[in-house]
Automatic annotation (TrEMBL):
PANTHER family: MALTOSE/MALTODEXTRIN TRANSPORT SYSTEM PERMEASE PROTEIN MALF, MALTOSE_MALTODEXTRIN TRANSPORT SYSTEM PERMEASE PROTEIN MALF. Part of the ABC transporter complex MalEFGK involved in maltose/maltodextrin import. Probably responsible for the translocation of the substrate across the membrane. SUPFAM superfamilies: MalF N-terminal region-like, MetI-like. This is Maltose/maltodextrin transport system permease protein.
Length: 523
């Protein structure tokens, strides 16, 4: 068989393994399709002015073509999907966030300069002159407009009727002609007018003298003229009063002659202004530093409390005289199996200041009813209590595993020397498990440093810090503070939020490097 194949000039594997050949063809076809799809995305983003996304997919498509096109890089094909996913979902968002932090990107500086200019040029105003009240009539199955100047019945009143609305297709102007009286029949109600609002807003009515009328309200047509006119130097002229709007490319706004900025604007580079604002603006620096300190205190106390509870419970579960250990382990670890958001919402109801079970018990036993959600100190205490409940099962599992690895001879020697349970706990157990536990404690600190879910679901960052120029609360962490600036503030200052997010990233990177060093991993 080999001889026959060789006489025909065919490689042996092509005849013996056709499935492999078809698989190779399918893989090549899939690779080509993915490359073409990424190139289409490159062109689409480039045409929309999103050059960063266009560059991302250009690099992704080129890498895909090179890795799957060269046989020498075959070993890299298996890891390429993971690297591509990390690049698209981790590295690119990080670089994009850092880039935004050096701009004035916000809800008022969101569009490109070309789109902002187009928005200004699309604005219209009602010209001085005739305005007509209108009504809709059904005439022989056709819908027509009847227009009448205000003050119907007085001398000099003008009455106009349009051709059928169906003749105004594809933006074609619709002619109106003078009439003596309103059409016979009953006019359509306001509900029908609202139902046809999109059609009416797209109409351009032309009177016999050439005046163009556009919809100026749910019951009115009037002469509508373009408000702004573009000048050769890039400025805009307001046709109502002759005011000139000059594009200020340092601030990203059109500015009037009096220095007033008109929105919307466009993003421009501002350098380190957002970072400087964090530390120099008193209305931002004060809340930021307060939230910064609370973030470290919250993460540190959470780790300390969860470790203390988990360590004590793990030590008790190792007590040989304790019966039913399996039941206790199951019950103590059970909170770890409940989704965190469910536990948080349950605690939110329990801490309710008026109807919560905790306040009902405190009021009946001690005669007090704490304001958990309005008093800053109590709100922070509540957060620590809830987070300790959520985090202690994790520490319990870690401590149980590490305590199992301690040689029993040490406890027997301690018993010979007269050591009791507390001596064993603090002189033997804790020192031996603390060193291997340190990297995990740092990881837990980093997790709680960015514990957004707890803050968002339990307190929302409130109570608010008085005098802050940005949304800031006494229970906010840096991550929730960043979220509120970006998505809950009226100005939605994405540039400032990105600067704070970049600082958070640098802090987490520092914690990660410390974790690796303590784990004795070479970096």
């Amino acid at each position: 068989m080999y001889t026959a194949n060789a006489s025909r000039g065919l490689p042996r594997h092509r005849s013996r393994y056709p499935a492999e050949r078809y698989t190779r063809w399918a893989l090549r076809a899939l690779t080509a399709s993915l490359v073409l799809a990424t190139l289409w995305l490159v062109v689409a983003f480039h045409l929309r002015g999103q050059w960063m996304f266009a560059l991302l997919f250009l690099v992704l498509g080129a890498s895909l073509a090179i890795v799957f096109g060269k046989r020498q890089l075959m070993s890299h094909r298996y890891i390429f999907p993971a690297l591509a996913g990390m690049g698209v979902f981790v590295i690119f968002p990080l670089l994009y966030t850092i880039g935004i932090s050096f701009s004035n990107y916000s809800s008022s500086n969101l569009l490109s300069e070309e789109r902002v200019r187009a928005q200004f040029l699309d604005r219209t105003y009602q010209a001085e002159g005739l305005a007509f009240d209108f009504r809709l009539y059904q005439d022989g199955g056709q819908t027509r407009l009847y227009l009448e100047t205000p003050g119907a019945g007085l001398e000099g009143t003008r009455r106009l009727a349009s051709m059928p609305l169906a003749e105004a297709g594809d933006g074609k102007p619709l002619a109106v002609r003078p009439v003596e009286a309103a059409p016979a029949g009953e006019a359509l109600g306001l509900r029908e007018v609202i139902a046809r609002r999109d059609v009416l807003e797209g109409l351009t009515l032309v009177t016999p003298d050439g005046t163009e009328l556009r919809m100026a309200g749910l019951r009115r047509f009037a002469p509508m003229l373009p408000r702004f006119e573009s000048n050769p130097d890039g400025s805009l002229t307001d046709r109502r009063d002759g005011t000139t709007l000059t594009p200020d490319r340092e601030t990203g706004f059109f500015v009037t002659e009096d220095g007033e900025r008109l929105t919307p604007g466009w993003p421009v580079a501002v350098g380190l202004d957002n970072y400087a604002k964090i530390f120099t603006d008193p209305d931002i620096r004060g809340p930021f530093l307060q939230i910064f300190v609370w973030t470290f205190v919250f993460a540190g106390l959470t780790v300390a409390f969860t470790l203390a509870v988990g360590f004590v419970l793990a030590s008790l579960l190792q007590w040989e005289q304790l019966r039913g250990k399996a039941i206790y382990r199951t019950l103590l670890i059970l909170p770890y199996a409940v989704p965190a958001f469910i536990s948080i919402l349950i605690f939110k109801g329990m801490f309710n200041q008026h109807y919560g079970e905790i306040n009902l018990i405190l009021e009946n036993v001690f005669g007090i009813s704490p304001d958990w959600f309005t008093d800053p100190a109590l709100a922070r205490t509540m957060l620590l209590v809830v987070n300790t409940w959520l985090g202690y099962p994790y520490m319990l599992l870690l401590c149980m595993g590490l305590i199992q690895s301690i040689p029993r001879d040490l406890f027997e020697a301690s018993a010979v020397d007269g050591g009791g349970p507390l001596t064993n706990m603090f002189r033997i157990t804790l020192p031996l498990i603390l060193k291997p536990l340190t990297p995990l404690l740092i990881a837990a600190f980093a997790f709680n440093f960015n514990n957004f879910v707890l803050i968002a679901l339990l307190t929302g960052g409130k109570p608010d810090i008085l005098g802050a120029s940005t949304p800031a609360g006494t229970t906010d962490l840096l991550v929730s503070y960043t979220y509120r600036i970006a998505f809950q503030d009226a100005g939605q200052n994405f540039g400032l939020a990105a600067a704070i997010a970049t600082l958070i990233f640098l802090m987490v990177v520092g914690l990660s490097l410390l974790n690796l060093r303590l784990s004795k991993v070479k970096v």
